Amino acid sequence: MNPARDPDATDRDAADLDDDFGFAEPSTDQSFENALAKARDGTRLSVDDATELLATGTDTEGIDPVRKEEVLELADRRRREEVGDEVTFVANLNNNVTTACNTGCLFCNFKDSAHAFEADSDADHAGFTKTPAESRAIVEDALDMGVYEVCSVSGLHPALALNEEHHEILRSYDDPESAVNYKPPERYATDPGTYVDQIEAMSVGGVHVHSMTPEEAYHAARGTDWDYETVYRELAAAGLDSAPGTAAEILVDEVRDVICPGKIRTDDWVDAMEGAMAAGLDTTSTMMYGHVETVAHRAEHLGVIRDLQDRTGGITEFVPLSFIHQNTPLYRHGVVESGPSRDEDELVVAVARLFLDNVDHVQASWVKSGDAHGLKLLNCGADDFMGTILSEEITKRAGGDYGEFRSFGDYVEMITAIGRTPVERSTDYRARRRIDPDDGPHGPRLGPRADGTPMLANRSGEGPAPDGESAGADD
Ligand SMILES: C[S@@+](CC[C@H](N)C(=O)[O-])C[C@H]1O[C@@H](n2cnc3c(N)ncnc32)[C@H](O)[C@@H]1O
Ligand SMILES: Nc1c(NC[C@H](O)[C@H](O)[C@H](O)CO)[nH]c(=O)[nH]c1=O
Ligand SMILES: N[C@@H](Cc1ccc(O)cc1)C(=O)O
Ligand code: SF4
């Protein structure tokens, strides 16, 4: 066990942490000024350049406010040159299938110990497992509200297998629980079905199914010799349209060893993403930052994503995920004192825009940052403001309280308030609809059943939820 993951650690300051983790202090042979000049000229940035920009110079402690503004301004200009003044968002729904997971990531409070879900368990848990039929009903309901996409990411439930053949393989192990993290569905109070069952259930009425992260694809292949392309092809045949690039966290193994020792390593994550794209799926890419990593790790992570995109071209967007700390093991055990500062959020968005010259879209998240700061991030290089989502469990359980829903009316008001043009998009950004702010009331039109009716308007007595209040589907 890594001594850095001392569960009794308390009240350590950042300097101690650096020592404890044994991470090198960021320093490069590049200067901030040179890196900035390269960004200004549009020269492709190196990982060292990105480190300097993220640090506003590794030669000084902390973030220099004047240098930060220089980086943000360049990124905002680059955004305008590359994608213009439109701000996109998607009419979508989150449908997490299960919170049962034994992977033990220390930044995550979404998961519940899978033992608590067993039929004969007395343990209390606040989580859930949905059957395929329940998933279908939730998606059907959301289709009627006009959604284009269902985004589905879940815990690695021990009874989840790709398909029946996978169940047979997993069952055939001696001691499948410890050998391949498997327990048969009959041991649990609720059977989630197979991954294929869940995708088939959600793939209804022409909705776009965005699901199966690299970590889930690993789980869907565990104990077999199937490669990722084979797994994703099977899922695509069941109706999967694209894969979320979460489970990326920080794509540097010395950081993964600390925050998610049970997860796949960086090379495996990259393999899974390549497998998804070889199977013809689009993907998104993410980085969850602001916990134990240094700016050099963030820069290296961006390097991994840019290289992957050079090889594949299938990444539609980059989604920075600001670490929400309040209820997580990392914070409760005193390993970190907080998530990232707003300055860090702004610099991550800006440097992503400048460094990822082959990824068109950078997302700002109202779930992670709230409306006001989310809008600020749209002036630091971001051009997408995520989606309506209707339900949010990951950030909420981690302690975030910016709510679970934004209506088209909210979006139009926010985006026009910063002088930009609101645009409804498809998941892959190929379908785009500019919205005339004066032509309200606003609702989705790209979804297979969308007719412009405001979302939630056809639900009795329910209006859009104000900030901080739940408007999502019940789990
Ligand atoms: C909760 S997992 C669910 C899917 C699957 N189990 C996996 O790990 O890919 C999805 C992603 O949520 C993000 N996440 C989890 N906890 C978070 C937190 N406290 N703050 C910000 N993002 C978080 C992580 O990037 C993680 O990969
Ligand atoms: N940034 C967050 C997202 N982003 C995902 C988008 O809503 C959408 O699924 C994607 O852009 C593909 O079209 N989702 C969350 O649940 N939480 C976030 O913080
Ligand atoms: N990153 C995923 C979706 C996602 C993001 C953050 C989360 O906490 C959960 C899911 C995507 O856009 O493809
Ligand atoms: S991040 Fe995903 S794999 Fe890790 S504990 Fe949470 S749900 Fe499980």
Automatic annotation (TrEMBL):
Keywords annotated in UniProt: 4Fe-4S, Iron, Iron-sulfur, Metal-binding, S-adenosyl-L-methionine
UniProt GO molecular function: 4 iron, 4 sulfur cluster binding; 7,8-didemethyl-8-hydroxy-5-deazariboflavin synthase activity; metal ion binding
The UniProt record lists the keyword S-adenosyl-L-methionine: yes
Region annotation (Disordered) ranges: 1-30, 426-475
Stretches assigned to the Radical SAM core domain: 87-357
Domain of life of the source: Archaea
Keyword Ubl conjugation: no
Cofactor(s) needed: [4Fe-4S] cluster
Basic and acidic residues bias locations: 1-15, 426-442
InterPro entries the UniProt entry points to: Aldolase_TIM, CofH/MnqC-like_C, F420, rSAM, rSAM_sf
Descriptive protein name: FO synthase subunit 2
Taxonomic placement: Archaea, Methanobacteriati, Methanobacteriota, Stenosarchaea group, Halobacteria
